[in-house]
Design brief:
- By secondary structure, the protein is mainly α.
- The chain is 58% helix and 5% strand.
- The chain has a 3-stranded antiparallel beta sheet. A two-stranded antiparallel sheet has the order 2-3. It has a two-stranded antiparallel ribbon with strand order 5-6.
- A hairpin with a 2-residue loop joins β5 and β6.
- It starts with a helix and ends with a strand.
């Protein structure tokens, strides 16, 4: 027995590795769009690693200290310790600026790849029975990741960050009945408070990453149990055993080892290369330009990152007169725009698989062109978010058209409803008019029995059967 065999035997005796060997041949559909989930996973890994580096040098404190770093304009000034530590990371710590930029762009790519992944799942109907639970997990991941990003860019405690935190604090306080308690838990009391940055730092580096990591693990476990969806086949598949084109009890794709592992390695290094390129050439939030928190002033232009812009647009568009009292409970316009409307968007996304529900289980994805009304709803939803995001940039829009934010607000409010409805109706009319066959959703039920699972040792296709 060779040395490697003895090492394998040692671990096999203790961990029962032999029973897990069937996983090595698990099938992964060879479709590029399926890799978006892997990009998101690798971005989270890079976020954790770069965040650990940044955490060694960041000081979650608003106490005043004398600055003695490389930025000449702040030399000898008393500045908040959090602000000073980010200045030091950026300009004095070796590789600090590069890794801070990588952390920033990894957060953006993480949310972007997750959003594109969810759009692919939505438009191809991959959320349908039996995958509703994983869609709910993905929706929770999206919301948690956006909140984690918000807590992150609030940490430098510069003028921009403190203004953003102030807006978030006021929105949290506006929640009926529990607003004060929520403000105490998340922001450490009346803003600005000495507890605000430590609370947000604790949420950003421990609580929210644990939640995100747990949801990612749950998402993967469900995926392993249920297996991937597969695009509709052009015909029967010839292999070790023939597979009918309509047999969705079998997934046809690349085996996990070695093929998919090699693909994943390429995706990881491409993701790392892209983030390195972005970090090397594109600057991030310049806290030296904004300066430390100053309660007596407000930056002339405040806008959140693109993935929070639509929620900011709701805040801008909701009229002040929308505040009202209901059963002695005050409901403010700030709560409606800042939490209620974004919350309804997430609820609508979460319950969609139960609206577009099918009794029969299917493991095939469907072309969006064959799902007219579902695709129309998706297009309307995307344009709704886009118009809300444009409303969040109303200052820029007003400057472009040579008007004021008050003057363009009615037009943006009208567009928020008119544009999605029009785009959805046009999409439905086009797809319905060109549809030759009835929608494929829910047509094929899982076949009885199945093809025995095969472990492809070489580069051949793997067939993954239902458990």
């Amino acid at each position: 027995m060779g040395r490697l065999d003895r090492i394998y035997g040692f671990f096999d005796d203790r961990l029962d590795l032999e029973e897990s060997r069937s996983f090595l041949g698990k099938a992964f559909p060879a479709e590029d769009s399926f890799l978006l989930g892997e990009v998101a996973l690798f971005c989270f890994l890079i976020l954790v690693l770069t965040g650990m580096f940044l955490g060694f040098f960041f000081e979650p404190s608003t106490s005043e200290v004398e600055y003695e770093g490389s930025v000449a304009e702040y030399q000898g000034e008393e500045l908040p310790e959090a602000f000073v530590s980010v200045l030091n990371i950026t300009y004095d710590v070796p590789f600090g600026m590069l890794l801070r930029r990588m952390h920033h762009w990894a957060a953006h790519l993480f949310i972007a790849s997750m959003a594109l992944h969810m759009l692919r799942v939505f438009f191809t109907g991959a959320y349908r029975n039996p995958r509703e639970l994983n869609w709910l997990v993905g929706t929770g991941l999206a919301g948690t990741s956006m909140f984690a990003a918000y807590t992150g860019y609030a940490l430098p405690f510069d003028e921009f960050a403190s203004t953003a935190v102030g807006i978030g604090y006021n929105v949290a306080k506006s929640v009926p009945l529990i607003g004060e308690t929520l403000g105490q838990i998340v922001f450490g009391g009346s803003f600005p408070s000495s507890a605000t940055i430590p609370r947000l730092f604790f949420l950003h580096v421990l609580v929210l990453p644990l939640v995100i990591g747990g949801l990612l693990a749950l998402h993967m476990l469900i995926l392993i149990r249920q297996k991937h969806t597969e695009a509709e086949r052009d015909g029967d598949v010839a292999g070790r055993e023939p597979v009918d084109r309509d047999d969705d009890s079998v997934v046809i794709g690349l085996p996990a080892v070695p093929n998919q592992v090699a693909v994943s390695a390429v995706v990881f290094f491409l993701t790392l290369a892209l983030l390195s390129l972005l970090a090397g050439f594109l600057p991030v939030h310049n806290i030296a330009e904004y300066g430390p928190n100053d309660p007596a002033s407000t930056p002339s232009l405040i806008m959140p990152d693109w993935f929070l812009m639509w929620g900011y647009g709701f805040l801008k568009l909701v009229p002040a007169w929308l505040s009202f009292d209901f059963l002695g409970i005050h409901v403010s316009a700030e709560f409606v725009g800042g939490l209620l409307l974004p919350g309804l968007v997430f609820v609508a996304v979460a319950v969609w698989p139960f609206i577009d529900y099918h009794e029969e289980q299917t493991h095939f994805a469907t072309s969006p062109l064959k799902r007219p009304w579902q695709t129309a709803v998706g297009v309307a939803g995307v344009t709704f978010i886009m118009v809300a995001s444009i409303a969040g940039m109303d200052v820029i829009v007003a400057d472009i058209v040579g008007s004021t934010t008050a003057a363009i607000k009615p037009y943006l409010l009208a567009a928020l409803f008119a544009v999605p409805i029009a785009s959805g109706l046009i999409t439905y009319a086009v797809l319905r008019g060109g549809e030759e066959d009835p929608p494929a959703s829910g047509e094929s039920a899982a076949a009885d029995g199945g093809v025995p699972e095969t472990n492809s040792a070489g580069g051949g296709p793997a067939e993954d059967t239902d458990d």
